[in-house]
Amino acid sequence: MTETNHVGFRVERAGPLALLQDAGRFGVRRLGVTQGGPADLHGWAWANRLAGNPWGAAALEVTFGGLTLKAQRDLTIAVAGADLGVTLDNKPLPLWQPVKVGEGQTLCFGSPMNGLRAYLAVAGGFSAEPVLGSVSCVSREELGGFDGHGSKLAEGDRLTVSDKAGQSIKPTQAPDIDRIDYRTPATLALLPGAQVSDFTGASLYAAFNQAWQVDDRADRMGVRLTGPRLECRLGAMISEGIGLGAVQVPPDGQPIALLNDRQTIGGYPRLGALTPLSAARLAQCLPGQEVRLSAISSEHALMSHRRFRHCFAT
């Protein structure tokens, strides 16, 4: 049977930043192309799971809110991640569970109440033409999204959804333990990196024993942390490949945790890399929020990630 696509929503108000994201664009960093994908992997995965979609389905990442959509057909949706004060026909929309939306109903995302990024998934998944194997929207590189050119949503856009069936068995809601309160201080697991031994002892002690604040210089490329000044004995470095969650320390001694839309190479020394779930947690932090770094072994990090992925195995 041939899969067909239909218009699911019309954009009535675009808001500051709403982007289409599937699991990401992989195998292309050698071309200088970054991965994209959901900044909060946890919230994105749960939205898709609750909508009955398999891993990798495209969902809408809504940052800061301000988005208004009108349903063009009957749909089943799920919203997970941040609480952006979402309403359906002016009534609060339940989060972290599937919801039926009728043709003509209006879905509105307000402003951040708990977290920064919400994920809207629709049963069957949003549909768009893949670019380099993914529909993930990376605006800086003008790749992906509904138009294939990395454009954020604009008023009047029509969002297409697939008619392929979702999973026959899906949970009625996410467990309480997975509904994160993003307002609480976050502890971010970090895998120590190749240059960690080049930082002074006092800097390493401060890095893992003092609190950091999320700076207002933060986007999908990276998040700057402010706190104690870290000193590294290394001089100039040859640029290296940069993975998700890499924590670079530039000459000012204030670390930068790199996220999904990061550059592909960098030449600053690194403390290490946040685990994918810790990078996801950081992506939900508002400026001024407190975070702490906690060193983790590769064995424990892998075990934790496998447990997470097992929840979404089909």
Automatic annotation (TrEMBL):
<keyword id="KW-0067">ATP-binding</keyword>
<dbReference type="Pfam" id="PF02626">
    <property type="entry name" value="CT_A_B"/>
</dbReference>
<keyword id="KW-0547">Nucleotide-binding</keyword>
<dbReference type="InterPro" id="IPR052708">
    <property type="entry name" value="PxpC"/>
</dbReference>
<dbReference type="InterPro" id="IPR029000">
    <property type="entry name" value="Cyclophilin-like_dom_sf"/>
</dbReference>
<protein>
    <submittedName>
        <fullName>Biotin-dependent carboxyltransferase family protein</fullName>
    </submittedName>
</protein>
<feature type="domain" description="Carboxyltransferase">
    <location>
        <begin position="30"/>
        <end position="311"/>
    </location>
</feature>
<dbReference type="InterPro" id="IPR003778">
    <property type="entry name" value="CT_A_B"/>
</dbReference>
<keyword id="KW-0378">Hydrolase</keyword>
